[in-house]
Amino acid sequence: MKISLEHISKRFQRHWIFKDIHYTFTAPGTYALLGANGSGKSTLMRIIAGMQPPSLGKVIFDINGAVADHNTVFPQISFCAPGMEIVEELTLREFLAFHFSFKKPMQGFDIESIISLTGLQSSADKPIGDYSSGMKQRVKLAQAIFSDTPILLLDEPCTNLDQKGVDQYREWMEQFVKDRMVIVASNDAREYYFCHEQIDLDKFK
User: Fold this and answer.
1) What residue spans define the domains of the chain?
2) This model's pTM is above 0.90
3) Fold of 2-204
4) pLDDT digit string (tens) for 40-70?
5) What is the torsion angle, in degrees rounded to the nearest 10, for the CA atoms of residue 135, residue 85, residue 4 and residue 198?
6) Cβ pair 98, 128 in contact under 8 A
7) CB within 8 Å of 123: residues ≥ 6 apart
8) Nearest by Cα to 157 from 33, 73, 60
C-alpha cells in the first residue's frame, strides 16, 4: 500500500500552515512528521486520515497498484491523537467491544488480552470518564495499535503518559507494528525513535 501526498497545502483564513508537500509513504515503513509547534503536524495527520481536506493538492491511496477511494481505505487506518474523543460513558470492556465491532483486532488478540496488555484490568468495568488522562491515553493507543490495520497514525502518542506508560508504548512499538505503515507526528524523540524516515514540515512554509 502507498499513500501519496501530491502538492498538499493547507491554509487557515489567510495564513498558510504548509505549502506544496509532495511525498509518498509506503507500507511497511515508519515515518515521523516533525516541526515546530504550529507547523501543521496534527493538521497533516488529519488530512492523511481523511478527517480534514487540504486547501490545495490531493491524497492518493494506492492498493496493489490500483487507486482506491477513501471509503475503501478508511477501514484500514487506525488513528490515535490526544484530542480524539472516546465514549467515556462506556466501560473499557464495553468501549473495546464497540470499537472492534467496526474493526477486527490483530490476529491472536481479543478484548480480554488487550485489556491485560493495557494494565487496566482492575478498571475494566469502570466508566472511562472516571479514568485519569494517562489511562485514557492508554485506551486510545490500544484501540489503534491492536486493530488489524496496515496503516497506523499516531499524533503525539505519549501525551499524558508517565514513564511507565512511555515504556509500555515503546514495547508495543517494538512488538506490534512490523509490516505496517506507521506515521508519528511529534516533537518528542521518545515517540518517534523507531521511525526510519523523517519529514520536517518547517521546510514547507
Assistant:
1) 2-204
2) yes
3) Rossmann fold (3.40.50)
4) 999 999 999 999 999 999 999 998 888 888 7
5) -30
6) no
7) 92, 130, 131, 135
8) 33
